[in-house]
Amino acid sequence: xxxxxxxxxxxxxxxxxxxxxxxxxxxxxxxxxxxxxxxxxxxxxxxxxxxxxxxxxxxxxxxxxxxxxxxxxxxxxxxxxxxxxxxxxxxxxxxxxxxxxxxxxxxxxxxxxxxxxxxxxxxxxxxxxxxxxxxxxxxxxxxxxxxxxxxxxxxxxxxxxxxxxxxxxxxxxxxxxxxxxxxxxxxxxxxxxxxxxxxxxxxxxxxxxxxxxxxxxxxxxxxxxxxxxxxxxxxxxxxxxxxxxxxxxxxxxxxxxxxxxxxxxxxxxxxxxxxxxxxxxxxxx
Amino acid sequence: xxxxxxxxxxxxxxxxxxxxxxxxxxxxxxxxxxxxxxxxxxxxxxxxxxxxxxxxxxxxxxxxxxxxxxxxxxxxxxxxxxxxxxxxxxxxxxxxxxxxxxxxxxxxxxxxxxxxxxxxxxxxxxxxxxxxxxxxxxxxxxxxxxxxxxxxxxxxxxxxxxxxxxxxxxxxxxxxxxxxxxxxxxxxxxxxxxxxxxxxxxxxxxxxxxxxxxxxxxxxxxxxxxxxxxxxxxxxxxxxxxxxxxxxxxxxxxxxxxxxxxxxxxxxxxxxxxxxxxxxxxxxxxxxxxxxxxxxxxxxxxxxxxxxxxxxxxxxxxxxxxxxxxxxxxxxxx
Lengths: 285, 334
Hints:
heterodimer, A: mainly alpha, MetI-like fold, 13 helices, B: mainly alpha, 12 helices, globular, MetI-like (chain B), membrane (chain B)
């Protein structure tokens, strides 16, 4: 595991940049544990101060220090992304491996549902959930809903790998040795799909955080919980761009783009590492 | 031909299943809502005038009947399915008593138009450029384009659209940033009106193209860079086949097939992106309507928009799947 990591850093510039960007954001998010102000308090500092030595990211029109506010926001957003990624990975691993290994009618039924989930447009459904739950739609509820909607694409990917493993020598040996299907899937096949699980986890985080930001910006989540989306929501709500408080919008957007770019580079470089052809090309050159 | 028909039949079955599942989910989620359309209309009507309790009671029962809420849930569900087929979901709340479906049908052409044009541009441009970048791997320009694609691709629609509003609305105001057409133009099939529509659609369409193109570019580039190492390409090169022919018919055409499948799979997400883009640019499409409906607490309209969205996306996927065998003669049956 560690040597893979070293290889990636040595031969893959994208991975290094991605790792750097994501680490920066994670450190920034962790700073929120040392915040001098509680996350939801307003009018704790002078409003509308531009970035300065005292307020690194400036302050917003609600009298919050943007530095600490955004670090809370990124903590919540990252937590949300990780919860969605972990939950949806669990679902897609289970479905993908079962479908690929068991085959037959199990495969056909699971993939039938899979195709339905892939095809349904998610955004109207999410808005429908907001319509019903209103401000009960907090980070955790939304994470569970997103996880239930976001597993399908990756389950198909995992299935395609598991399908290839099914007729390999070691699988047959495991069956003859009397391993139960569950054990074969979990102990023999799972390691093979783990790289895919990692790279799709990053892509999944981009996907889910993108939706979260969008919903929050439109005001369609609990807007009192600081996330990156709600930060932008309040900035729009106070017409930050029009009254000239540009740092309220530009800084979160820049940080957000850094995070997305970092996650994306990680996903791409891990993906490339999985494919031996492109890995060889990179190491040779 | 028989195989193609079988393939089409299978896809049609799948289309029905997707529509059925999506529409049913939309119905049951919307019925969980604590806001009753009936009570909110009564609240609005009786807000600043006094009615006798009997009058309100009879209003309530009339409205319950109008919205079809006076029967058990499962009957409501079957009613809903039946009425969806004939395209009548009852009156909307934000524009009471205009039928919800009428509002949806007014908004639908805008979304479909914007979506179709931007998808076609995005997909073709992204794939052609990506294909060229995969084939000519040493081109500086295409390499720079690749870096740009990586940079823009992971940013969500909302942020890109929003940045474009800031740039073209505040910093360099040259393009209209809101609405579907100018206020002073009368809607109709006049050149003036069509030009106005095109002028207003530049920004939303460009933002969709910008975000979407990266995915196709990167996907196509990696597909093509794998294909060019195949023996048949090397053989064609040695045999002296014209370069354009190799790139166009041998390499890109082959790689387009998985990209078409990917398009079908990505369509739901692209549709979601359009909804957001519309909201940012106040474009008069389904997205804006959906958000107005949510803010107005209009459950009928929300349900109508969601159902139509599910049907539209599923049908579009079906159409793409039907094109598939035409592009790739090998795929007669899956």
